[in-house]
Amino acid sequence: MPHGQEHRQHSHEESNQEEASATAYRPGPDLSVSSSADADREETTGTASAVIVRETTPDQVPPLPDAEEARRYVDSKGQYARGQIHFDAGHYQKLVLDVRSQEFYFYCDDWRVPRGRNKNDRFPPSAGVWAPFHWQRVADILFWTIDSHYNFVERPYLTLEEGNAFAHEVAALAQALLLNLQSVPGTNTYDWSAESASAGMDIQAACSRHWHPPQGRRPGLVNMAEAVSVHPSLVQDRWASLDDRQLDEEAERLNRYGLYLNPAIAEALGIDPHAHGASLIGTRAWLYKHRREAAAGRPVQNAAAFLAAQPALVTADTTSAELEAVPERASAAAEAEGIVLLGNTTYVAHARREELRKEVLDELAAYGRARAAAEATAKSCRSAVYARLYRVLSWEDRPGVKSAVSDTDLGELAHVSSQTLVRLRERLDEGTDEEGVDG
Fold first, then answer.
1. What confidence tens digit (pLDDT) does each residue in 294-334 have?
2. pLDDT digit string (tens) for 76-119?
3. Which residues in 126-169 belong to E strands, given as ranges?
4. 3-class SS of residue 258
5. Which residues share a beta bridge with 103?
6. Which of 14, 255, 261, 345 could serve as 327's disulfide partner, Cβ 3.0–4.6 Å?
């Protein structure tokens, strides 16, 4: 049997296994069954729809690299220059999942175009590469690199038809990933769940050159909600009053070290907290939801935003003694408005005063520069006015002859007094400059 047909037949058999496995990520026989993760997600996107497999067209992919050209380059130890571009093509084929549009498709970099050093200019964006060291934010565009290569007997480069077929075969896993993402309350972002992360790992396995079969939910990945259910003392009161930045930091700490620092979780679930890949998942979504529930329907506001909206609480002139009372006053004011204040108000109050004092210093610097510039301009203009007045006054070359311009007119034109004009005439007669004319 030709290798391509064998690959496609093998892929079809694996696809059937994956479709069965995809349903195993969720409680129920159908991928459309609602779950708690769906309920959270509806706050941001509404009911999840099926993943859309987008067919890639011939005009969207480059030709396959020429394997013979690449081999000639290798055999010649780099002397056959024409083969280098084919050799450098590397792993240019990918599967891409657009989390927002829910499109899933086969994609190829144009291996003929040299890759720049700035990875942020590439598509798909590097932030979405499937190589997570820990599970935090979900990129809008995720992608998996297919381990295909001209020199791999197990998985040579896919043709367009094979690539599109591969996307269809793996679509059930992409569907499981999407349906099990968790929305982060109060934001337009997503967080992982153990189920969605496991589905992503199975897509990665499917993209390997050896086509590893799906494993389903990884036992070492523990949802935050599961951890709290078996170890309630994990929850800390302070979480309810953390602002977004602090909550994100706490989510990452739990994600990285939660199982290691709380062995009771692993013990209750019967897993090894030190196993490779073991981690708490969905910590950010859980913490944001916990904070919202603790607020009991009341609006939450960052302390920095609250103090900025209450200018009387902190000013540039607030003393250090007065600053110590700000947290209590801010808390009382927020409570009176039915607002839950988030963050470290003491730290924020000090930062607010420093910010306001910097504004005063910046204003001082601006006015100082303006004053210096104005004085320099005034001095320059005064010299120019006097120089021209001297010239006009010098036109009176015969005593007793009426001046061409009256003193009244000269005073109005130059914006000087009649006394100044008298002193200028005296200086002109004495042959001195205008020094002391305005004195």
1. 999 898 888 898 899 989 999 999 999 999 999 899 888 98
2. 777 777 777 777 777 889 999 999 999 999 999 888 887 766 55
3. 141-145
4. helix
5. 52, 98
6. 345
Q: What is the pTM of this model?
A: 0.70
CA distance 131 to 147: 14
Phi-psi region of 238 (alpha: psi -120 to 50; beta: other; left: phi over 0): alpha
- Beta bridge partners of residue 190, listed in sequence order: 183
| Residue 167 and residue 53 in contact, taking contact as beta carbons nearer than 8 Å | yes
Cα–Cα distance, 17 to 210 (Å, whole number):
16
How long a stretch of residues is the chain? 439
**H-type helices in 207-309, by residue range?**
224-230, 244-261, 263-269, 283-295, 303-309
How many whole angstroms separate alpha carbon 438 and alpha carbon 416? 9
274 in the Ramachandran plot: left (φ > 0), alpha (ψ -120 to 50) or beta?
A: alpha
Please give the sequence-ordered ranges of beta strands (E in DSSP) within 146-267, or none if there are none. Answer: 182-183, 190-191, 221-223
From residue 230, alpha-carbon distances to 124, 222, 225, 226, 387 in Å are 39, 11, 9, 7, 92
Q: What is the DSSP string of 297-323?
A: T--EEEHHHHHHH-TTTS-TT--HHHH
Q: Is 176 exposed, middle or buried (0-12, 13-18, 19+ CB in 10 A)?
A: buried
Measured CA to CA in angstroms, residue 414 lies from 38, 111, 350, 422 at distances of: 80, 75, 53, 14
Contact 313, 353 (CB under 8 A): no
Residue carrying the six token digits 């390997």: 208
- The CA dihedral of 355, 252, 281, 221, to the nearest 10 degrees, is 180
Contacts of 14 (CB under 8 A, 6+ apart): 169, 206, 211, 213
d(CA 423, CA 433): 11
Q: What's phi and psi for 280, nearest 5 deg? A: -80, 135
Angstrom distances, CA of residue 55 to CA of 143, 270, 360: 16, 43, 60
